[in-house]
Design goal:
The protein is of the alpha/beta class. The protein is built from ten helices and ten strands. It folds into two domains: 170 residues, P-loop containing nucleotide triphosphate hydrolases (Rossmann fold); 80 residues, no CATH class. The strands form two sheets. The protein has a six-stranded mixed beta sheet, sandwiched between helices. A four-stranded antiparallel beta sheet has the order 2-1-4-5, covered by helices on one side. The protein is globular and about 50 Å long.
């Protein structure tokens, strides 16, 4: 599926260095032409249940990398470990040049990481514009006092954040509903608003947990175009969880397949579709179900 690249959604993000006080748990790594995201032998369990079993994942800079697998395969657990919501029992995660045994969730913005959730995490009583602007809250330098007093630098920063939010809203064709309350919008539109909120922060790494769940075929096509345009215009690295195999194979550069917490395959869409282990564990059932 060929989708025209839209005008720049956001500027290409800058590299970010964490100060020593951020408690980097492993030494800094500097490698030429290294992948932007690396998951190294990550294992995670809950009680007697193994969610991830020594999973490895390597994602190149500017790549759209899908993670697929049956229900309960560990896909959301992997995203939650990458974003620091879960602490792995073992293994490490590298984002850019920084390597962690647990990614520090409080510093995701400084690391250049943004994400969406499987279930919508929006404030239904806010407008679209306010919702998208919230994506910049971690980038505010003006303190509460300066904002309340309306000091010049606080006003300037608020204006810049509003302009950035307006630009992303326009790029995702949401301008005509910018003043609507999020809770009054159709589900598929709310999903696009959530994507806009994630993009406004200029992420270097964007984690999308089932961004097209519950959408119609037309809405999925539009969302796929938005995701591809975001990557093409900014170079953002994207990790995507999605159940629609057709969408995954047309949108992704590479695909990793999980089954029962283990990685059973990784490669291009063509390679993965032809892998006997993948067909046996997942794709046969997915295609039979019309996914």
């Amino acid at each position: 599926m060929n989708v025209a690249v839209r005008p720049h959604l956001v500027d290409r993000p800058r590299s970010v260095s964490l100060p020593a006080s951020r408690q980097r748990l492993h030494p800094r790594i500097v490698e030429e032409d290294a992948p932007f995201l690396v998951v190294e032998g990550v294992s995670l369990g809950f009680g007697g249940t193994v969610a991830l079993d020594a999973v490895d994942l390597s994602v190149g800079e500017g790549e759209i990398h899908a993670v697929i697998g049956p229900n309960g395969a560990g896909k959301s657990s992997l995203i939650n470990a990458i974003s620091g919501l879960y602490a792995p029992d073992s293994g490490a995660i590298r984002i850019g040049d920084d390597r962690f045994s647990r990614v520090p969730t409080r510093h995701l913005a400084r690391l250049g990481v943004a994400r969406t959730f499987q279930n919508l995490a929006l404030f239904r009583g806010l407008t679209v514009l306010d919702t998208v602007t919230i994506g910049l809250v971690d980038r505010q330098s003006a303190g509460l006092g300066a904002q309340v007093l309306g000091l010049p630098h606080a006003r300037r920063e608020a204006r810049e954040h509003r302009e950035r939010a307006e630009a992303v809203i326009a790029a995702l064709d949401l301008a005509d509903i910018r003043d609507r309350l999020v809770g009054t919008l159709p589900y598929g539109v709310q999903k696009r608003v959530e994507l806009a909120r994630a993009l406004v922060a200029k992420p270097r790494l964007l984690l999308l947990d089932e961004p097209m769940a519950g959408m119609t075929a037309t809405e999925k096509q539009r969302m796929s175009g938005d995701i591809r345009a975001a990557r093409d215009s900014t170079g953002t690295t994207i990790v995507l969880i999605e159940h629609d195999v057709g969408v995954v194979m047309s949108l992704s550069d590479r695909v990793t397949v999980l089954d029962h917490g283990r990685r059973i395959a990784s490669g291009t869409p063509t390679e993965v579709q032809a892998d006997p282990a993948v067909i046996a564990a997942y794709l046969g059932l997915a295609f039979e179900a019309g996914a």
